Every structure is written in structure tokens, then in C-alpha cells.
Amino acid sequence: MTDQDDQSPLAPPSQHQARDLTRTIAESLAEIVPGGGIVTGLLREVVPSKTDQSREDWESAITERSNQHGERLDRHEDVLAPSETITGLPAQLLVRLAQECPDGLSMQDYDLDALSALFPDEDRQSIKDAVSDLKALGLLKSWDFIGGWRIALAEDTYEQVDPQVMGWDTKADAVEIARLMLAENTGHAPELHEKTGWSKRRFNPAFRLLLPLFPEGRIRQVIQPDYPSLGVVLADDDRAKLRRLVAKAGGAR
């Protein structure tokens, strides 16, 4: 179908009340299916409510037009939220680094010799290529110097890989910490950590996700080795942000 055909309106068939009733029921069902509202919106845009005459031609035209809409939505999604499938040695490397990380602070670093020791059956060039692939995806951070480099997991990597590798959801964990902060009226990281009962490896990435909600002046900058920050000072507007976060996640109480 040409671009001109794609923009031209589709001529509606003549009225058929029984089909209209079926359509109404279908639209009602679509509204309660996740994502169904989009489908219903497309139907209302390009399909008249009265359809009977030339039914086969009409449905053929609708199928083609709907496919074009779907392709466009897919292209928009790829631009706004690109996804990657990681396989082979890069995937093995990413999993190993996530599992080896002791505290979720992105400071467990490795040079080429250390990575070669983790993967003794792989040649050094293959390991370097895997590192480059993960760096290009933003999953690793690196410290480069003459004659070598050291790499570590990027801070944002935990929330992307932990649901698959470690079995917990960092974003959901952040909501649980926010709920604790409200319930206990504290932003003290060691206290929150103790109340969760989690390892530092699980707690720290989730706690770090909450820090951008707070002004820099209310984030404690004490140098210490255990947490992304020693904690935050809670003010009324911070509590409001936390309440909205919990409510948005469907966990308002």
C-alpha cells in the first residue's frame, strides 16, 4: 500500500446492528486487558462502528492498516526504550561480576589478569572484546591508564541484571525501603539496612535508587565503606515524594 493509500480514510461498510453489538462487547473487554486500551483506541480511529457490506475487503484493509500501526509503535519503542540481548562470554562475564560483587557498591574492580583468572578457558582477546561490548552498553565502568584498565559494574547495572541473576527486583526493593523510611521516620542507612534483613549486596543498589529524590544538602556525605550514603535527612517535602513513590507502585497504606 502506498503512503497516499496509508493516509486516505477507509470507507465504512453499511450499518449492521448485530455486528455493532459484538464490537461494543469486544471494546469493553479490550479496556480491561493490559495494553488493550491502545488497541481499542486504534479501532475507534480507523474502524467505523457499522460494518457489514464488503466485510472481507474491509477486514483485509483493517488488518493491513493495523499492522502498519503496530510496526510504527515498535519503531517508537525501539527508539525510546532500546533493548539488547546479551549472550556468550559477555553474558557469562556480566553474571559472574554480579554474583561476585560483595556489597552492591560498584567498587569491586578487575583488571585483565583478574578476569582471565575467572575465565581460564577463554583467551585474553575474547575477554577484552566481551568487556568492550559491556562497556558499549553502559553496563561496566572503567578506569583506563597507560598499558591497561580496571573495570567494575556500573551503578545502574544492578537494577537491570539482579532480577535475572540474583532473584530480586531492585526497583521493588527501593519501594520497600521508602515504605520503611516513612513508617520508621528515618533515613539512616544502617538502621534501614538492619530492618530489611537483606545483605548489603541487595540493600545498597535499592537504597541508591532513592538518593536522587533528595536535595544534595540532605544526603549525608560521610566517607564510609558500607553504603552509597550514610543516609538522608527527612523533611516534609521528602516524605511527600516517598509517599508518591509508594502510591505509584501500588503500595500506598
- Please report the total strand number as a whole number: 2
Q: Describe the sheet with the most strands.
A: 2 strands, antiparallel
What order do the strands of the largest sheet run in, or round the barrel if closed? Answer: 1-2
Radius of gyration: 26 Å
CATH architecture of the largest domain: Orthogonal Bundle
Poorly predicted spans: 10-53
Mean pLDDT level: 79
Supply the number of structural domains: 3
The coarse overall form would be flat
Order of helices and strands: HHHHHHHEEHHHHH
Helical residue percent band: 55-70%
User: What is the fold-level CATH name, i.e. the topology of the largest domain?
Assistant: Arc Repressor Mutant, subunit A
Oligomer: single chain
H/I helix tally: 12
User: What structural class do you assign from the helix and strand content?
Assistant: mainly alpha
Straight-line distance between termini:
53 Å
Structure, briefly:
With 253 residues, the protein is mostly helical.
